[in-house]
Target: ABC transporter ATP-binding protein
Amino acid sequence: MTVLLEVQGLAKTYGGVEAVKDVSLTVAAGEMVALIGPNGAGKSTCFNMIHGQIKPDRGSIRLFGRETAGMRPAAICRLGVGRTFQITATFGSMRVIENLQVALASHDGMTWRRLARLDRYKREEAQALLDLVGIGALAVHPCGELAYGDLKRLELAVALSNQPRLLLMDEPTAGMAPGARIAMMALAADIARQRGIGILFTEHDMDVVFEHADRLLVLDRGRLIAAGDAETVRNDPQVRAVYLGDGTVFAPAGAHAQEPAR
Ligand SMILES: Nc1ncnc2c1ncn2[C@@H]1O[C@H](COP(=O)(O)OP(=O)(O)OP(=O)(O)O)[C@@H](O)[C@H]1O
Model:
């Protein structure tokens, strides 16, 4: 199994708050790894350090065998890392396909001046990505008119436009209806497995996590308190204590699970 991401001893303190303490993790090709934990556990801080928005105080981040701690996001993106965000960031006034064409052009280092014919730029490639995420029929719709779930799919297509080997997905299903959440992650999982992309994702919906994660990592107050498959984590007493304490968050498969305490 090819390890894409290897993090060791990662730490970040804000003033007196130890947001992340000594976190180590790996993600391999084709693997779906969920980083879960209550609000304030340190998930976003980990993501931002891996993606270069925040410089770690300590620790090593190796992407595809290369040390990247402290590197800028653009450089990390060029190595083959895609990212989706909790809040979708698309150009509402453009057509759906143009959002992808802009992303493709930007990855190719094109400037706005040279983009006079954006409508023709890699149109087939852009359409193929839209088809892949299931919104090909919406290509010429104004992006601002998309339903929220379709916007999230567009964001996934934009993240894939760089042909990443690793995808970082920060609450990919936030704000979606429960059925759409499972479908969205099923789509991401299918694409990841077909293409050998590793996915590290944060998620508050435990149904989504248990359905799709190959491995779970549980953060609490900056520390990793448990790691393993769904069954291992479901039965971990420390994890159960963090999640409400009564175990209802880990309802049997099929039953609706609750989100962690906020
Ligand atoms: N820029 C910052 N300045 C000061 N403290 C911060 C900053 N960013 C995060 N923190 C603190 O660091 C801790 C970890 O926050 P982080 O956002 O990483 O948690 P999280 O698990 O992503 O939470 P959520 O699920 O709410 O997104 C929290 O105590 C938070 O208040």
